[in-house]
Amino acid sequence: CGFSKVVLGLSGGIDSALVAAIATEALGKENVLGVLMPSPYSSDHSIQDALELANHLGIQTQTLPIGNLMQIFDQTLEPMFAGTSFGLAEENLQSRIRGTLLMAVSNKFGHLLLTTGNKSEMAVGYCTLYGDMNGGLAVIADVPKTRVYSLCSWLNEYHGKEIIPHHVLVKPPSAELKPGQVDQDSLPPYEILDDILYRLIEKHQSLTEIVEAGHEQAVVKKVIRLVMIAEFKRRQAAPGLKISDRAFGTGWRMPIAKALDW
């Protein structure tokens, strides 16, 4: 498509770490730009982890704090949001501010914006339209979260040194959109989630078959519902690299709106 350089958001999390490592391997460190966009909810260790990763890879970074932008959005929306409590709208604003900044960098310098969402998140809609889904290529959209971890561990072993910082591998995954947030507040543990998704998406197993494999029926129902209602998001996602037998995108056919038959 005529791009020679890429840009991505570096959150200090494992997904952006893997995407940055893949981009560096593919394009060379001089062609990768990582942008840190800390908010008041970003932990100090996340910023440190992102900078340590960039140092290991040898890529350039820029830091664009979003705290002031968040305040401006809050002030603008305050008359309309008055009387309501902090929730998903405010959390997702942070992601959308970051998505806007990344697209601005992409447009200004001609870099291709890489999205960093994994297959587990894309499957259940744990991603923000016009936020972290912004971009031109979804590098790991066909890589489940558990495989993201195994790939990062393998990468360190392959190079014989720490490419992905150790702390990134061991800390609980979090979007850091509110104090103390971790992914498992909203989702089953990724080992359980990924097995359910594998059986559902790639093995075409039914609710009954997945439950018979040892999963709790209520959890399976929740996951299937999330997959069904997130299709409208996936239709608007950046094209992704395919590594499985059934990736989201052109080989995936599901109605945007569908009644659940239980």
Walkthrough of the structure:
The structure is a single chain. This protein has 262 residues and is of the alpha/beta class. Helix content is 48%, strand content 7%. The protein has a five-stranded parallel β-sheet with strand order 3-2-1-4-5, sandwiched between helices. Helix 1 runs parallel beside helix 2, helix 1 crosses helix 6 and helix 3 packs across helix 4. The N and C termini lie far apart (45 Å). The relative contact order is 0.14.
Concise overview:
This protein has 262 residues and is of the alpha/beta class.
CATH fold-type name of the domain at 6-183 and 230-234: Rossmann fold
As a percent range, the share of helical residues equals 40-55%
CATH top-level class of the domain at 6-183 and 230-234:
Alpha Beta
Strand content: 5-15%
SSE layout:
Elements: E1 6-9, H1 14-27, E2 32-36, H2 44-57, E3 60-63, H3 67-81, H4 88-109, E4 112-115, H5 119-124, E5 137-138, H6 145-159, H7 166-170, H8 190-202, H9 207-212, H10 217-229, H11 231-234
Parallel strand pairs: 1-2, 1-4, 2-3, 4-5
Helix pairs in contact: 1-2, 1-6, 3-4
Which properties best describe this structure?
48% helix, 7% strand, five-stranded parallel β-sheet, 11 helices, 262 residues, alpha/beta, Rossmann fold
